[in-house]
Amino acid sequence: GRFDRNIIVNPPDIIGREEILKVHMRNVKLAPELDVKVLARRTPGFVGSDLANMVNEAALLAARKGKESVGMEEFSEAVERVIAGPEMKTRVISEREKKIVAYHESGHTLIAKLIPGTDPVHKVSIIPRGIAALGYTLQLPLEDRYLTTRTEVLDRMTVMFGGRVAEELVFNEVTTGAQNDLEKISEAAHKMVCEYGMSKKMGPITYRKKEEMVFLGRDITKEKQYSEEVASQIDREIRRIIEECYKRAKDLLKNNSDKLDKLAKALIEKEMLEEQEVDEILKAN
Predict the structure, then answer these.
(1) CATH code of the domain containing 106
(2) Listing from the earlier edge strand, what are the strands of the sheet with 272-274?
(3) Number of structural domains in the chain
(4) 114 and 229 housed in the same domain
(5) Between 228-255 and 179-194, two packed helices, what is the crossing angle to 10 degrees?
(6) What is the 3-state secondary structure (H, E, C) of 176-210?
(7) What is the per-residue pLDDT across 72-121, written as a single tens digit (0 to 9) for each?
């Protein structure tokens, strides 16, 4: 036989995640203080398999610690394992690299704190995780979102520039650590101009590539392609948007260099900071 219909299953919303978690937690002894609603809120974008994996990881962590029940501490660690991979505490990095990573992550964290309305910083760490991550800044939205505004896209791009800009300002050099950030920034700027119609210069128009039309099974010979002149305008507009976000990130970190230093020094000392600790550092004189 053959399949002639594609059924798209969207990731569960916060209510769905809560119900899925309850199913997977049925045979797990939970600590009295555990709040399933909080866990559901901390796992946007997780699908059923991610949630099942998270519960399993949390149970294993509790067992390794000799605990009789699984608490929020184990679930918080399990969420990070699913998102960023397991901690690699045996991976030894030099003091200089540790300092660079600390400033890189502090750059992300500080800009996220300085721009109103960005997703809250849940945790920032310079403990290596997974295959390649030497550090990470974990931002978690307060609620599920199905729409994103132009301002929100630009804010996210500015936050993503925080790491590279911090390296540049402090060490007068940049590293390969910002590769993934730059890829996401470039992709976001491209989508703003070519898919979302968020460029005031290019207007509310979608510019599609030939490859996309083939994937959609349409006849590309009937699809009008834009001219080389328009292609050049698109490139210039993408570059302009990226450069504006870069400049914004640079201005924010330059004007708050004292806070950047405080965050980085605290990260070097503790290796991991929770949201409350970040707030206390930034509020201190």
Answers:
(1) 1.20.58.760
(2) 136-139, 121-125, 272-274
(3) 2
(4) yes
(5) 130
(6) HHHHHHHHHHHHHHHHHHHCCCCCCCCCCCCCCCH
(7) 989 988 988 887 777 666 667 889 999 999 999 999 999 999 999 999 99
Examine the domain organization and report whether 176 and 62 are in the same domain. no
Looking at the structure, do residues 155 and 111 belong to the same domain, yes or no? yes
Asked if residue 228 and residue 152 are part of one domain, the reply reads yes
Q: Quick check: 132 pLDDT over 90?
A: no
Question: Are 169 and 273 members of one domain?
Answer: yes
The rounded Cα 178 to chain-centroid distance in angstroms is 13
Residue 7: inside a domain: no
Residue pair 141/112 in contact (Cβ under 8 Å)? The answer is no
Q: Give me the pLDDT at residue 227, please.
A: 83
Q: What is the pLDDT of residues 157-170, one digit of tens each?
A: 999 999 999 999 99
**Of the residues 105, 167, 168, 237, which is catalytic?**
105
Give catalytic status of residue 19 as yes or no.
no
Task: Give the containing element (helix H, strand E) for 136.
Answer: strand 136-139
Backbone angles phi, psi at 60, to 5 degrees: -65, -40
Same domain for 131 and 218? yes
Q: What is the pLDDT of residues 211-257, one digit of tens each?
A: 444 444 444 444 546 788 888 999 999 999 999 999 999 999 999 99
